[in-house]
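#dry-run=false #mode=assembly
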Amino acid sequence: MRRLSIGVAIALAFLICALVGPWVAPFSPVEINLERQYQTPSLTHLLGTADNGVDILSVLLHGARLAGVVALLSVGISLLVGTSLGAYAGYRGGRADHVVTAMADLVQSFPAIVLNVAILAMIARSGLIHLVLALAANGWVLYARIARAQALALREREFVLAARVLGASPVQILFRHILSNLAGPLLVQASAGLGAAILAESTLSFLGLGPGVSASWGALLDQGSAVLLRFPHVALIAGGVIAITVLGFNLTGDWLHDRLDPHSR
Amino acid sequence: MLEARYLAIRLLRAAATVFGVVTLVFLLVHLIPGDPVDAILGDQASPEDRAQLRHTLKLDLPVARQYWFFLGDVAKGTMGYSFRRSTETVSSLIVKVLPHTVLLAIASVALAWVLAIPLGAIAALRRGTRWDRATSTLAMLGIAIPNIWLGPLLVLLFGVQLRWLPLPGDNSTRPSALILPAFTVGTALAAILARQTRASLIEVLNEQYILAAHARGLSAARVLFKHALRNALLPVMTVGTAQFGAVLSGAVITEKIFERPGIGTLFLEAFFARDIPVVQGCVLTVAVFYVLVNLGVDLLYGAVDPRVRLI
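#status=ok
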């Protein structure tokens, strides 16, 4: 139980940083001061400085906003699209089901990051919304699979049959009976999905494919890796923050799973 | 009879997936808003240059014709020509670097299995002890630490502090230069496989036939290796294959961290140069490779476990 609430604490701390980070950051994340490049942590710069003397803590606080926005938007879109498609496919069956399943299989025949990069390569513009869409392009599949499996199972249950007999329309049944029963598993997946999206944003920024915003965790890690042998603190801090945040969201997912799934109690 | 049918269905399904992958890679250029010519030349280029490039890329043709040409290039095995080095086919560029990536992927998967099976087996046999707890903590860390951080950490520890292994970009043909990259890619897989081995072995050890084997007086080692592990490893294999995409993605990322040549490095170079045919070629190669590995493992299952062929 203790292990799991640590996860929730980390996730909440991240969300607070994403919300207020840019306002409480002690320095500007782009303020250049060549005299104080790559300083180790001190009282003025609590986490030290990086390339061009920017304050690492400030970059991390601004980067949290970026990671948070990208993660919430991409998971939000994936959740909406995936759930609608999956629930519809599972409930209707037949042709709709074949089409959605084939699309999901096709998307999953690409390793995730490779497909993301391919999409970004074709868009060829770096921007936040492009990154979000590239992540949602394969993000929807997991939600669609969960929603489909649940809808398939629920479709034959008595309460859904009863609703149908009472004259409820398919749309009513989907929203009132199927989607409301999906909330638990989807919430669990979405929590882990936020962690995965934060990691994907960091990884893409690390590869140099980020949204071209100055403050990003992955870009800081990339800078840190370039000077790893001389100034290891930059990469250690940036990577550590990414790892802890992703772990926090995964543990939150486990915690939600244990709380929401009556079978595992 | 059954086996021929199983083989035929699997092959047909794989062929359909490859065709879908080829089509999707072609469509990526057309589905995504924005003009590839803008992407390559920028907004400021002269109309003549733009028209010239449009012609070279065959973008002035109807989409159906372009698709036909694309299929032709794939069927011929050239996958078109690089924009930057127009004398070289995309496939010749890929063939040059692919062995590096395949080697890294194989090394990572091998390392993961070598680490995971003993760890998982010890945890299952010594369930609830310190060994078990230590293994599961290690597994949790292995899954949680992202590649992009693990790579630099390993370099600092084994390259800088201990000086046991070469630093990134240094002498990448020596076998010892492969160890850290393979660890970077393989650790997460090892953690997942170790967890699965533990869970699966615990289940098998509770089966009646294990009790029967003990009762017949077989040695503990013989029961473990001949009866328990063999059955326990099938679900582990399934999980292992499902993770193969992660291994390939990991290789792309790890090549950058360790400055190794490979398909990931080629892919990123092509991305930054807006060399669309090479980007398409790399995506296609990785995806087809992935489909083929899945097919291979499916067929291997059929050989290992006859029950699978009944589907």
